[in-house]
Write a structure and sequence with these properties.
Layout (H helix, E strand, L loop, with lengths): L1 H26 L2 E4 L3 E3 L5 H15 L3 E2 L2 H11 L9 H11 L3 E10 L2 E10 L4 E11 L5 H12 L6 H8 L16 E9 L1 H8 L12 E16 L2 E12 L7 E12 L4 E20 L12 E4 L3 H4 L16 E4 L4 E18 L2 E10 L6 E7 L1 E2 L7
């Protein structure tokens, strides 16, 4: 008996809930959406109509009449909906569908603009109740987002302001899954060399030095290739070629191959990899005992060949064996050779519309002295190609 009572109460609640939902659903105004006329874009009128129907349905403002039900009614009435864009035609269609409202419009491309016009028609009064016309950038892959904005504007719903600005404002690039940050372009900056390498740069030429400033300005170019992209994250290989030392009358080329990791929205980036440059080095030794003349200049740097011309001799007049270890050091009297090192860099890209300004700090740890520096550059993002 108790079980039957529970079943009865449950059934009553279910009937009440169903009736309430149906009543709520019927309280909404019904709307029929026909094809949206399209010119100069990659989507036809039927496809644009489907997208518009979807975006209207997502707002939950109206009861959107199902497209299959519309097709069935029109087929039975021998009504052709393919070219039904005028107000009078839409009013007749709305009466056949028993709809309260009808929605029509058109999408046209003019050069680098796409203009979307939507009109809401009241079937009973046979008048255009509302209309909205909005100009967008010619970014056809973003068409559904454009229709989303236009539909919300037509229904007086607040659209996503950031999305609206990106789709309408010509000075702001659109951020979409297909948009990536590319920073190919010129680079310039400066580096500071520490330790023994820095001392050698400043040493006089008579001692094999370069007579340069410890701070070296650099100019060059960066080229990058993306090999991975997932959401906001990008992984890329960066090729950076630089020329330094021009302020001291020197020509010091270098090239770096960096593995970079970039976050597009924030603009932050981390990179590391090898760098190769051409430098002059020579083999020599430090006269720590003052065997080559002394004069209190203990620890002076000499070329390896200096021992055979200035080193001490034995009783037979032969040069004694060189007791010092031979090492390689920066020296203008040496020969050009490649020198490899590691670069670790961190940076951030600042944006102003389509202008990108990457700023980076980097270090290159070396046994003979670290190199620390900064670089910056610029490039202009290309606007998406017109389809």
């Amino acid at each position: 008996m108790k079980t039957s009572k529970k079943v009865f109460i449950t059934s009553l609640l279910l009937i009440y809930y169903t009736s309430f939902c149906i009543a709520q659903d019927k309280s909404k105004v019904s709307i029929g959406i026909m094809n949206i006329d399209s010119k100069g874009i990659i989507y036809d009128a039927q496809s644009v109509g489907y997208i518009t129907r979807l975006e209207v349905d997502k707002t939950a403002v109206y009861n959107v009449i199902d497209k299959y039900e519309m097709n069935d009614i029109f087929k039975k009435s021998h009504f052709k909906m393919d070219s039904c864009f005028s107000k009078s035609c839409l009013v007749n269609a709305g009466k056949l569908l028993n709809a309260d409202k009808m929605l029509t419009g058109d999408i046209e491309r003019f050069g680098e603009k796409i203009i979307i016009t939507l009109r809401l028609i009241d079937v009973k009064t046979e008048t255009i109740e509302k209309s909205d016309a909005t100009e967008y950038l010619n970014l056809q892959p973003e068409l559904q987002r454009m229709i989303e904005v236009s539909v919300k504007k037509l229904f007086n719903l607040p659209p996503n302001q950031a999305l609206t600005n990106q789709l309408i404002n010509y000075e702001v690039p659109v951020a979409s899954p297909k948009t990536t940050l590319r920073l190919n372009g010129p680079r310039m900056g400066a580096s500071f060399t520490t330790g023994d390498a820095g001392d050698r740069l400043q040493a006089p030429k008579s001692e094999g030095g370069f007579e340069m400033y410890p701070v070296t300005f650099q100019v060059g170019y960066q080229q990058e290739v993306r090999y991975l992209a997932a959401g906001d994250f990008q992984a890329l290989i960066e090729f950076v070629g630089l020329i330094g030392g021009l302020e001291s009358g020197r020509f010091i080329p270098s090239i770096s191959f960096l593995n970079g990791f970039r976050w597009g929205k924030s603009g932050w980036e981390f990179a590391f990899g090898p760098t190769i440059r051409l430098i002059k080095k020579a083999d020599g030794f430090y006269d720590t005992q003052g065997l080559l003349g002394g004069n209190g200049n203990t620890g002076a740097w000499h070329l390896e060949t200096d021992w055979m011309t200035s080193g001490p001799k034995d009783s037979l007049g032969m040069y004694q064996p060189n007791p010092y270890p031979i090492v390689s050091r920066l020296d203008t009297r040496g020969s050009l050779e490649p020198s490899a090192g590691l670069i670790i860099a961190v940076g951030r890209t600042f944006r102003s519309g389509y202008l990108n300004i990457p700023v980076n700090l980097y270090v290159s740890p070396r046994k003979d002295g670290w190199i620390a520096g900064f670089s910056f550059g610029f490039n202009v993002s290309k606007k998406p190609k017109i389809e």
